[in-house]
């Protein structure tokens, strides 16, 4: 560890500014956004440290995203230190909802690097065009061909990771004609248990995953276009070492049909509409766990039907977007407990009691350009959020706690935001104010005895919760001359009616070994701050130094720290690229987790720092390209866990990886 501290001092002695190799420009864009390249452009150019990394590994590069880890796969993305209840995650604008009450299947787990081009992360109300949000939004954009390059093309990917013996194989085959294209790709992963530092095996961290997708488009003429897409994803034998159960099946079918029209000589520049359907099945499994007190089956299902309609246009100095989006979701989860004594009765519960969510909302924004250096964007949204419990048994179960509750409830959700953007020469400035609301999630409003293994409490929903309300301020400033660039981005959130679980000693727990029962209630308010400081500089045309420094803060009105708030985090790397060769070495870590939340089950975590190294070379083979990339993560085999590791499961130790890409 002393060696790491010495390296850290060496890395940071010349500056206190930090950044990451993410395609970010918060000032050219009106909203505060980060864009992480994932797909086609990165596949051959190999811009990422590990091109065949999982989506989880890609997303944790972003300054505004933290990944809550419960195993070796399917990490939960938090935006601005806010969980998925307070954010919106979409795939190409489509709303999708996981089917697991324990968040073992975030939406990001149902896609692959093979069918995505980029991840667009919007902070706070900058993401409200995708639906009501507090923390922001994450839109995973699919990769697809354009009509610019005709013919047949594709690639073959293969990778191997030595730590967990992960085998990766993928391929794509695309055809583009004058008016028609079709893209097809497949990716398969198979991993064993990974080993933490000092070669300590982490049991139940294995996974197996198959992902297939196809997209086809037809160009009627130069301004009318139709596109259909399907994604099928199936994960089996997925271990979750931080949880008491694993997953035997996580399966998703995601389909959509889109129509685009580009009017000529009209104030409307683009009309786009999409209809979509997705279905998810998720089955928790404890049959491979030793010493199970009572066997449980815990399946879950989620079906979503939706559509959106977007109109883009321009009138003189005004550019506008008018959007309507609607979705209907039915979520159901159940639990059956089988006592070891055959004379005892089987116990059954509906943990999500056939809950319907029906949302219809409109979103409007307008950007007024004052001059070539400045503009102002104003946006607003209004939506109706309707919930209904379809199961009589589930309703009667919740009426034990809430005798007067009705089967349905309707809420109105509002947002209003303004953002001023100024840029001149090498300097840029951005300032925003916003207000937003969100409804309680299904678990928060209607969950029935959901066991949280982190604080070891059973949770019961509360249908009487008020909407969360957030007042948000954002600020960004940048300076970008030719040889280096630096920027500072800060977001502040004051959230009223902050929903969180509160112990209720009058209710007995259902789960064996649980500490008690928590009822979802609300703090008067909570305050969260996220600040990211970036710096990168070129020492030569071939060598640059990229750094990032991230500060987070979160505290409730009870003066207690909020859970899963990152300590001071840093990332620094040197990148070298000359002709067909590229290489990088990087240091990343956190300081001591002093702002932990013991009230919510957190413990103090020590600091950590790890070294990573990777190199790649591209071979030209006639018209084709072969790229080889190899690297080592956690070179010194440090044993550590972070604030984001559920129940302090250790992270992966030294891992040597090899990625091969052949494109034609």
Mean of pLDDT: 92
Rg estimate, integer Å? 25 Å
Separation, N- and C-terminal Cα atoms: 45 Å
The CATH architecture classification is Beta Barrel
Helix-strand category: mainly beta
Instruction: Return the CATH class.
Output: Mainly Beta
Number of strands: 33
Low-confidence stretches: 1-30, 41-46
CATH superfamily: TonB-dependent receptor, beta-barrel domain
Q: What's the number of domains?
A: 1
> What is the number of helices?
5
CATH topology: Maltoporin, Chain A
Helix-residue proportion: under 10%
- Quick one: biggest sheet? 22 strands, antiparallel, barrel
Beta-strand share of residues: over 45%
Label the overall shape.
globular
Explained architecture:
- The protein has a single domain, classed as Maltoporin, Chain A (Beta Barrel).
- The chain is built from five helices and 33 strands.
- The longest helix has 11 residues, at 2-12.
- The strands form four sheets. The chain has a 22-stranded antiparallel beta barrel. Strands 1-6-7-4-5 form a five-stranded mixed β-sheet.
- It starts with a helix and ends with a strand.
- It is globular, with a radius of gyration of 25 Å.
- It has 664 residues and is mainly beta.
- Residues 1-30 and 41-46 have low confidence and may be disordered.
- It has helices spanning 2-12, 40-45, 55-59, 392-398, 442-446, and strands at 33-37, 65-68, 76-79, 87-91, 94-95, 116-123, 136-142, 151-161, 166-176, 180-191, 195-196, 200-201, 207-221, 224-238, 246-261, 268-285, 295-315, 318-338, 347-371, 374-389, 408-424, 427-438, 450-452, 457-460, 468-479, 484-503, 516-538, 543-556, 569-578, 581-590, 608-621, 624-633, 655-663.
């Amino acid at each position: 560890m002393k060696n790491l501290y010495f390296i850290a001092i060496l890395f940071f002695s010349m500056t206190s500014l930090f950044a990451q190799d993410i395609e970010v420009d918060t000032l050219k864009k009106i909203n505060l956004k980060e864009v992480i390249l994932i797909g086609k452009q990165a596949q051959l150019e190999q811009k990422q440290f590990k091109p065949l990394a999982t989506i989880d590994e890609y997303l944790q590069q972003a300054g505004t995203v933290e990944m809550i880890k419960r195993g070796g796969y399917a990490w939960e993305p938090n935006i601005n230190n806010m969980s998925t209840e307070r954010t919106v995650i979409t795939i190409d604008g489509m709303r999708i909802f996981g089917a697991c009450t324990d968040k073992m299947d975030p939406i990001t787990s149902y896609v692959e690097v093979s069918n995505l081009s980029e991840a667009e992360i919007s902070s706070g109300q900058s993401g409200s065009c995708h639906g009501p949000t507090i923390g922001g939004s994450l839109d995973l954009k699919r990769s697809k061909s354009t009509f610019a390059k005709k013919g047949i093309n594709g690639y073959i990917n293969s990778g191997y990771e030595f730590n967990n013996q992960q085998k990766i194989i993928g391929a794509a085959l695309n055809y583009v004609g004058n008016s028609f294209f079709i893209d097809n790709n497949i990716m398969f992963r198979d991993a064993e248990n990974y080993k933490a530092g000092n070669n300590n095996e982490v049991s139940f961290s294995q996974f197996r995953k198959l992902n297939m997708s196809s997209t086809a488009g037809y160009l009627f003429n130069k301004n009318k276009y139709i596109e259909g897409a399907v994604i099928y994803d199936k994960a089996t034998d997925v271990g979750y070492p931080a949880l008491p159960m694993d997953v035997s099946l996580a399966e998703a079918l995601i389909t959509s049909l889109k129509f685009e029209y580009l009017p000529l000589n009209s104030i409307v520049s683009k009309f786009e509409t999409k209809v979509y359907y997705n279905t998810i099945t998720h089955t928790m499994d404890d049959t491979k766990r030793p010493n199970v007190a009572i066997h449980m089956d815990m399946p879950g299902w989620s079906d979503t039907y939706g559509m959106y309609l977007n109109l883009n246009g321009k009138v003189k100095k005004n550019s506008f977007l008018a959007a309507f989006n609607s979705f209907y979701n039915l979520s159901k989860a159940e639990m059956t407990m089988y006592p070891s004594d055959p004379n005892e009765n089987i116990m059954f519960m509906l943990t999500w009691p056939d809950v319907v969510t029906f949302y219809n909302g409109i979103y409007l924004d307008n950007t007024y350009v004052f001059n070539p250096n400045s503009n102002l964007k104003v946006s607003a949204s209004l939506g109706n959020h309707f919930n209904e419990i379809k199961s009589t048994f589930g309703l009667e179960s919740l009426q034990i706690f809430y005798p007067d509750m009705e089967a349905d409830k309707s809420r109105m959700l509002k947002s209003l935001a303004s953002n001023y953007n100024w840029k001149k020469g090498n300097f840029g400035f951005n300032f925003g104010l916003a207000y937003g609301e969100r409804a309680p999630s299904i678990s928060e409003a209607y969950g029935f005895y959901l066991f949280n293994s982190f604080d070891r409490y059973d949770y019961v929903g509360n249908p009487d919760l008020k909407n969360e309300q957030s007042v948000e301020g954002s600020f960004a400033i940048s300076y970008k001359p030719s040889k280096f660039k630096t920027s500072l981005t800060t977001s502040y959130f004051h959230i009223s009616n902050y929903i969180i679980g509160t112990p209720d000693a009058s209710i007995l727990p259902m789960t064996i070994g649980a500490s008690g029962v928590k009822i979802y209630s609300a703090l008067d308010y909570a305050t969260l701050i996220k600040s990211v400081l970036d710096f990168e500089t070129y020492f030569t045309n071939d060598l640059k130094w990229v750094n990032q420094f991230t500060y987070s803060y979160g505290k409730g009105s009870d003066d207690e720290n909020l859970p899963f708030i990152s300590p001071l985090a840093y990332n620094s790397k040197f990148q070298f690229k000359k002709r067909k060769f590229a290489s990088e070495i990087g240091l990343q870590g956190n300081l001591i987790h002093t702002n932990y939340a013991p009230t919510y089950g957190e413990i103090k975590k020590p600091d950590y720092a790890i070294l990573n190294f990777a190199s790649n070379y591209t071979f030209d083979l006639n018209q084709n390209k072969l790229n080889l990339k190899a690297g080592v993560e956690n070179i010194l085999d440090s044993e550590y866990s972070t604030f984001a590791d559920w129940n302090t499961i250790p992270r992966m130790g030294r891992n040597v990886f090899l990625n091969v890409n052949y494109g034609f």
